[in-house]
Amino acid sequence: MTLLRDHDLARAFDHASHTYDGLTALNPGYRTGLLRSARRLALPADGAGLHLLDLGCGTGASTRALLRAAPRARITAVDASAGMLRRALVKPWPARVRFLHLTAEEFATTREDEGPFDAVFAAYLFRNVTDPDAVLRAVRQLLRPGGRFAAHEYSLSGSPGHRALWSAVCRGVVIPAGTLTGDRTLYRHLRRSVVAFDTAPEFAARLTRAGLTSVRVAPVAGWQTGIVHTFLARNGNPTTTEERVL
């Protein structure tokens, strides 16, 4: 099976949007993991005075995690799937949270005036984009100097055991559940996209090659340890003044 990309992937998410929250709720630790990754940004003062970007926000689960981690921040959330955004928009949000229907690439090239952002959060995004290096370059352009970056991503540790566990969970749970909802193609893509994507050390090295600094990798807890990781980085080294702000 060829991996879904661009508009084909967006259409698959559109179709799956009405059951997506229900299926992810069955995943132990799904929302807890997102919140932990958002909190690992370590944003000060509950995010007061900060403008944050949620890149690939889906139905808003990552946006909710970011809002809980920084409840006083202003948040711009972006996604390529109109269906997923419709699900996000029916949920209650404070006025300082807004949603835009754009791909990560489109946002970076058409909304430069939106930035610079104090932090960028990207959950389950990079293995789904056609050119992750181009998106990382765009992230650097969108981040202010010293700004913070966190990716919460399916990225296997490199251990054969973790790869085997991921395949077993997909074949035994994820793909059968997706088949019942009529979205088998999307969840087969999920399985293959994780296997085809960078291992955690490889993605960390990709961040460094993109020019991000202070790159760190932290596993999530629970059954997804070694399967999902938080990747943390900075856009260069902050000045003393910037460090006080962030």
TrEMBL record:
Enzyme class: transferase
Keywords: Methyltransferase, Transferase
InterPro entries reported for this sequence: SAM-dependent_MTases_sf
Keyword Methyltransferase set for record: yes
Documented EC number(s): 2.1.1.-
UniProt xrefs under PANTHER family: 2-METHOXY-6-POLYPRENYL-1,4-BENZOQUINOL METHYLASE, MITOCHONDRIAL, METHYLTRANSFERASE
Protein name as annotated: Class I SAM-dependent methyltransferase
